[in-house]
Specification:
By secondary structure, the protein is of the alpha/beta class. It contains 14 helices and 12 strands. The strands form 2 sheets. The chain has a 7-stranded parallel sheet, with helices on both faces. Strands 2-1-3-4-5 form a 5-stranded parallel sheet. It is elongated and about 75 Å long.
C-alpha cells in the first residue's frame, strides 16, 4: 500500500514539474508571437545579413533565394498577403503589384534614394508608408562620380584596351596619343545641386578647375561653399567643358538631354551621368558621340538596366560604361539595407521611420 501511494506521489511531482516548468511557458509564448508577426517580402537573397536580422526579430520574413532581381511573375505571386515589402530600384511597384498585395500592405521600404520605380500616387491612395535611404549614399556616389569623370576625361578605359590590342606597342609615346581633356582649368556644370551634386563639386575643387556652374529649380545658398554660379540650363550647356548630371528622374527631367541640348554643347564637352538613365535620350547621345557633337560620355546609369551587351553604346570607344555602382561600397550598402529594414519595422510598429518618403 505504501508503495502504491509513493508511485502516485512521484507521478504528481512529474506532472507538476512539467506544467510549471518556465521553459514550456516561454516556448508557448514564442510560438504565439510568431503566429502574430507581420509578414514581409524581401525581393532578393543577397541583402546584408544585418538587415535581415532586424526584420526577422519582429517579422515573418520571406526572402527570395536568388542573387538577382525578382521576376515580375514572382513579385506578383509572392506579394499577396504581405504587410511589408523590402524592395530595390529594380522592382517596379505599380498598380498591378499593389492590387496583388492586398489592403493589408502597410509599408514599402526601398533600398535606394531614388524612387522612380515606385508609383507614388497609387501608393498614397492606399495610405501605404514608404521608407527610403537619403543621405546615406551621398559620399559614395560623389566619390564614384569623380572617378568616372577622371576615367572619361583621361580616357582610362580606352587606354587600358590599348595594352591588350597592341596599340601601346604601335603608338608608344606619340605626342598626342591617348590625350584627354583633363580637369585643370575646366568649367564644370552640375545639373541638380542637391546633396550629391554639392558633394561632387567639393571633391572637384582640388583639381584646379576654373569654375563651377549649376542649374536647377532655384538658387541654392549652399552653393557658396564651392563658389558655384547659378545659371540657366541653356547657359550651362553652352559654357561647360564637363557636364555632370546629379538630378532626380521625374516628369520635368525625363529626356532633358536630347538632340537640341547636345547640339548646344561644346564639341570638346564631356557628359557624366550618375543619376538615372532616363534623364538622357540615349539615341540622341549615341548620335552626339558618333558625330562629334560632344567628345565623350561617362555613364553609371542607362536605359534599360542591365544594358544589353550588344547595345550601341557598348561599341563606342568614347563612351565609358559602368554598371550602376554609384553607392557600391560595403559600408554604404550595408547602411542602406539596415535603414530599409528599420524603416519597415518602425512603420509596422507605428513608430517614426528613420527616413520616410510618404
Amino acid at each position: 500500500m505504501l508503495r502504491y501511494f509513493h508511485k502516485i506521489s512521484i507521478a504528481r511531482n512529474v506532472v507538476d514539474s512539467w506544467v510549471l516548468k518556465p521553459t514550456h511557458v516561454r516556448r508557448f509564448a514564442t510560438t504565439s508571437q510568431r503566429m502574430n508577426k507581420p509578414k514581409v517580402l524581401v525581393t532578393r537573397g543577397d541583402i546584408p545579413k544585418s538587415a535581415i536580422s532586424i526584420l526577422e526579430e519582429k517579422c515573418e520574413v520571406e526572402l527570395m533565394p536568388d542573387h538577382s532581381p525578382i521576376s515580375r511573375i514572382d513579385l506578383l505571386n509572392k506579394i499577396s498577403g504581405k504587410d511589408g515589402l523590402f524592395c530595390l530600384l529594380t522592382d517596379k511597384i505599380d498598380h498591378e503589384v499593389l492590387e496583388k498585395a492586398g489592403p493589408q500592405l502597410k509599408v514599402i521600404g526601398t533600398m535606394s534614394v531614388g524612387y522612380d520605380h515606385l508609383d507614388i500616387n497609387e501608393i498614397k491612395k492606399r495610405n501605404i508608408s514608404v521608407g527610403y535611404t537619403p543621405n546615406v549614399l551621398t559620399a559614395a556616389t560623389a566619390e564614384l562620380t569623380v572617378a568616372l569623370t577622371l576615367a572619361t576625361t583621361r580616357r582610362l578605359f580606352e587606354a587600358h584596351d590599348e595594352i591588350t590590342n597592341g596599340g601601346w606597342a604601335k603608338y608608344a609615346w606619340g605626342p598626342l596619343w591617348m590625350c584627354g581633356g583633363g580637369l585643370v582649368g575646366a568649367k564644370v556644370g552640375i545639373v541638380g545641386l542637391g546633396s550629391i551634386g554639392l558633394a561632387v563639386a567639393k571633391r572637384l575643387l582640388p583639381f584646379d578647375i576654373a569654375k563651377i556652374m549649376y542649374c536647377g529649380r532655384q538658387e541654392k545658398s549652399e552653393a557658396a561653399q564651392v563658389s558655384g554660379e547659378y545659371v540657366t540650363f541653356d547657359h550651362l550647356l553652352s559654357e561647360s567643358d564637363v557636364v555632370i548630371i546629379t538630378c532626380p528622374l521625374n516628369d520635368a527631367t525625363r529626356n532633358m538631354f536630347g538632340p537640341a541640348q547636345f547640339a548646344s554643347m561644346k564639341s570638346n564637352a564631356v557628359l557624366i551621368n550618375t543619376s538615372r538613365g532616363g534623364v538622357v535620350d540615349q539615341s540622341a547621345l549615341v548620335h552626339a558621340l558618333k558625330t562629334g557633337q560632344i567628345t565623350a560620355a561617362g555613364l553609371d546609369v542607362m536605359t534599360p538596366e542591365p544594358l544589353p551587351v550588344d547595345h550601341e553604346l557598348t561599341q563606342l570607344k568614347n563612351c565609358v560604361l559602368i554598371p550602376h555602382i554609384g553607392s557600391a561600397t560595403l559600408q554604404t550598402r550595408t547602411t542602406m539595407a539596415t535603414m530599409t529594414a528599420q524603416n519597415i519595422v518602425n512603420a509596422l510598429e507605428g513608430k517614426p521611420m528613420p527616413a520616410q518618403l510618404c
